[in-house]
Here is the input.
Amino acid sequence: MTRIPCIAGNWKMYKTVDEAVETAAKLKEALHNVSGRDIGIAPPFVSLVPVAEVIKGSNISLIAQNVFWEDEGAYTGEISPTMLKNAGCTCAIIGHSERRQYFGETNETVNKKINKCLDAGLMAIVCIGESLEERESGNTFSVLETQVSEGFSALSPDQMEKIVIAYEPVWAIGTGKTATASQAQEAHAFIRSKIEGHYGKAIADEIRILYGGSVKPGNVDELMAEKDVDGALVGGASLDAGSFARIVQFSS
Ligand code: PGA
Here is the structure.
């Protein structure tokens, strides 16, 4: 079993088109020699097409931060999986905690988005994770279990092969509080065991589980040393090309 490490930068609502293009160009240059790692960046929607142009032919793939669950229609403000694919994306982030917290995403909408995304030929990075209150009340595992069983409800093994899971404890996102490597490992092992329960050992062994929440150059090596941590979804520290390039080149 080899799980290729995956490092994805989520730029959230940061960077104008010009800034996004400039950062993408720096990353292309800084990372051109890196192999054996899946690298992706998720700029805001308006920058997808120009960034796609910059990273064309490089080892960096283009990720969307969100996606809708219909192909087209009267859904003002939404973007479909087909449009994202056509714009150059290979993957979309689904169910980020900020989407769940501020935009009403639920495990059910996450499930609809996953289905449509995979139908359109995009991979999905599906985010799950507990809040501080849930952790402190001892509910971390039950929250993760529900997010897995409802979010991935009725997905086939073939579909699961196109999914990457991101474990992002909400209390560690943008707060500077990283889960310790052992807290991350514990949650990742639990998530993998749930995937094994639903889909069997082969899929559980293959699925990649990224950690997200204040990942930085200073803590990535330790996190990546854990057996079930297969990569990172990086927010704040992905905005600077030098810092993201260092994270991508974590020492293994
Ligand atoms: P952060 O964000 O690295 O800024 O904590 C991670 C994320 O939200 O994906």
The chain has twelve helices and eight strands. The domain at 6-248 is CATH 3.20.20.70 (TIM Barrel). The first strand starts at residue 6 and ends at 10. Residues 10, 168, 173-174, 212-215, 233-237 surround 2-phosphoglycolic acid (CB under 6 Å).
